[in-house]
Amino acid sequence: MATIISSEASNQAAGRRPPWSEIIAFLAIAGIVVAGVLAGALAGASPQGILTNVGFYASIAVIFAVMALGFNLQWGYTGLFNAGIAGFYLIGAYTMAIAITAPAPPIVIGGIPVYPGHLGGYSLPLTAGAILAMFVSGATAAVIALPALRLRADYLAIATLAFASILQVVANNLQSVTGGAIGITGIPKPIEFSSADAPFLNAITIVGIGSAILLLLILLLEFMAESPWGRVLRAIREDEEATMALGKNTFNYKLQAFALGGALMGLAGALFAVTLGYVSPSSSFAPAVTFSVWVMVIVGGSGNNRGAIVGAFLIYGLEWLSVQLKDYVPIALATGLPILRSVLIAGGVAAVVTAVLVVVLGRDRPTSIWGRILEKALRRGWGRSAVIGALALYGMGWVFVFLEEHAPGAIGTTIFYLRLMFIGVLLILLIIYRPEGILREHKRVLR
Amino acid sequence: MEKAFGGIQAVDRCSLTVLPKSITGLIGPNGAGKSTLFNIIAGLYRPDGGEIWFDGTRIDGLPPYEIVHLGLTKTWQIPHELRNLTVLENLVLAAKNNSGERLLNLFLRPGQVKRDEKQWRSRAREVLKLTQLDGLANEHARTLSGGQKKLLELSRALMSDPTLVLLDEPVAGVNPALAGSLMDLIEKLRQNGRTFFLIEHDMNVVMNRCDWVIVMHQGRRIAEGRPDMVKADPAVIDSYLGG
């Protein structure tokens, strides 16, 4: 009950209060970066190496943010569920690669074909490649949507899911166009550096270009989505039949939103091709990419462009952090195990003593200070959640200790995979306590 | 006109005429096909047979958004408010030819977009004053009560400046005083040249406010005439009004 009342109160006071959601989102992202940097520093990486690493995080997060913006336009605003984000991403990446790389003829060594070659070698400028990538992805989205949007909503999801799976197989097997399983390598960088710190300089240029594009996109999308045009999109999301009865050709709007969203996913693919310097039909275009973007938009807040970006930086940040921790945690555990164990024992004893004091003294004398603390903590949802959370953390600490004792090194290798569990837990908590996402869709007050 | 769902003939060779500048009532027992008939006229369902003419134009088979542009709108029996949009947004959406709703205009004609939007917003505020929802203009439509949602339906229908409005139970769930003033408003709008075709179970409204009443039963028109004539019709009493 208390949470409901407080959320309503915060609604009314939304204009005057500090923007807590934004502050929390910023702190969470900053915390991830700081943790990653610390892990790198403790593992003994050079400052430049750490910066390059952070730059890599930022450039991939920007790519996911562009995809999340595209999906937000399709689903957050218009209610069109796209289950083939990875497919449009793949099209953008390959289009970019084919457009801007130099010719790569097939390689045959001793009669054995080593590399099948690929279409293109047009050496177009990067801008032309990016525009082409957006166009091809957007046009493909429109072609898929043309039949699928006329059917019920579920069919769009099925059609796009199938489309993405087919594309990955095609990229693998249409060797003369895509270079097969090896893919397309040697994609030019925006600026070619030849000095020793080239990786660092490359990371910096990519982050610069990506941030500029992201800034431009958010301005453009805010302008479009918050216009009368965007209002029709939101109306379709709420009730398509009613919107049609209000005189809107809803099919045209859905087509526009879906194609524009697809074009953004293509742009993300183009950025990806340039960032990595090669494309191959690997896990980069697996369905997991699609699922990640869903989570990003849901966590960040659908129907809110800034939310989509926050979600991308947060969720990809967890993934990046897990890679950083993988290098550091085994070392830390190996040396810090005795300390961790004594901390856990001391913490456990302290917690039991406090709990006994609070419960026993609180029961006997409900008006005492302990009684009031107990009553207050139990009455509030967060009090109970905090206790459960603390217990879970404590239990996890012991699990870590026992694992390290009986299977040394196991944690280091599993922590990378544990990230999925963390993201899952985050998602569940969010859906329970804040289903509208970290940055909720705001109410449009018209004057 | 005909419409069948599976084996059920919802509207069965039902032929009727609504005279311009009239308030015509459509009554009949539940499941008679009244709402289906409205959905067919508004273009939401395709008729299986027959023709619909509106103001000299044949409209059967046209998509609903084109029918709206010809000047025919409908309200829903169960309110179809756009829940997460504000009341004002709900109304502005019902505007016809708002240039900002075309993507290209946003970039090519920003001045026109701004002017149109401003004009439609002030029109929306006028309509909201008529239906007494002006205090809720910037609230989410989902927060409205059942009766207020009905009013929102009517307000949206008035936004597009229609010549014929199909009202599906406009006053069901609206308090008696407001229902009275709503019907006064409809009467006034009729005198300005609009036509109303309404489904209603409130016999008070039907008998006192309508000029012509059509009675449907099992998908067919079983009677029509002035309210007092219909009231006395034995077939109507038998199937709908009861003894």
List keywords for this structure.
heterodimer, A: 447 residues, mainly alpha, ABC transporter involved in vitamin B12 uptake, BtuC, two-stranded antiparallel ribbon, 16 helices, 2 strands, 2% strand, disordered N terminus, B: 243 residues, alpha/beta, Rossmann fold, six-stranded mixed β-sheet
Could you explain the architecture of this structure?
- Chain A has helices at 2-12, 20-42, 47-77, 85-100, 126-148, 153-173, 175-178, 198-225, 228-238, 240-245, 250-276, 287-300, 305-364, 369-379, 381-406, 410-433, and strands at 107-109, 112-115.
- Chain A has 447 residues and is mainly alpha-helical.
- Chain A folds into two domains: 45-303, ABC transporter involved in vitamin B12 uptake, BtuC, CATH 1.10.3470; 329-433, no CATH class.
- In chain A, helix 9 crosses helix 11 (250-276).
- Mean pLDDT of chain A is 87; it is low at 1-14.
- Chain B contains ten helices and ten strands.
- Chain B has two domains: 3-81 and 161-241, P-loop containing nucleotide triphosphate hydrolases (Rossmann fold, 3-Layer(aba) Sandwich), CATH 3.40.50; 85-143, no CATH class.
- In chain B, the strands form three sheets. Chain B has a six-stranded mixed sheet with strand order 6-7-8-3-9-10, with helices on both faces.
- The model of chain B has no long low-confidence stretch (mean pLDDT 89).
- Chain B has helices spanning 34-41, 64-69, 87-93, 103-108, 110-130, 146-159, 176-191, 203-209, 227-232, 234-241, and strands at residues 3-5, 8-11, 23-27, 53-54, 57-58, 72-74, 164-168, 195-199, 212-217, 220-225.
- Chain B has 243 residues and is an alpha/beta fold.
- Chain B starts with a strand and ends with a helix.
- The longest helix of chain B has 21 residues, at 110-130.
- Classes of the chains: A mainly alpha (447), B alpha/beta (243).
- The interface between A and B is medium-sized, with 29 and 38 residues.
In a few lines, what is going on in this structure?
The complex is a heterodimer of chains A (447) and B (243). Chain A is mainly α and 447 residues long. Chain A has helices at residues 2-12, 20-42, 47-77, 85-100, 126-148, 153-173, 175-178, 198-225, 228-238, 240-245, 250-276, 287-300, 305-364, 369-379, 381-406, 410-433; strands at 107-109, 112-115.
